[in-house]
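User: My instructor asked us to take a sequence, write out its structure as tokens, and then describe one feature of it. I'm not sure where to start. Here is the sequence I was given:
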Amino acid sequence: MSADHMEDSNTKVSGASGDDVTLETADASFAGAVSHGVNDDTMNYSKLFIWSGLGIITVVVFVVALMFFAQYSIFNAQQNASVTSRYLEVTKLKADQTEELNSFGVIDQEKGIYRIPIDEAINKIAVD
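Assistant: Let's start with the prediction itself. The structure tokens for your sequence are:
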């Protein structure tokens, strides 16, 4: 077989020197593809629809899972903030009560009622 003559499955391509090429084939679709410059694409639409549907379902499941994860994360953050807030309130309340028990102060000046630290009150009662 020479460089200017090529055979491939019932197709004969002959070319002289330059731009002249001759194509002889029994396959009409191949001859049409060569004349148009492209091969016809035979799509398998059932596979295309199956894989497209599977891809869409996968994306939807992923997005729904992300939404549930976000809701769960927000719920946990709110619970933790609530617990932390209650802990801070209780801690502040205890500190305020401890400060009140261990300090002097006026309760009702008109009636002459005053507050003294609890240790001072115990000492006064013990001495009297």
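For the description part of your assignment, you could build on this observation: DSSP finds three helices and five strands in the chain. Try explaining in your own words what that tells you about the chain.
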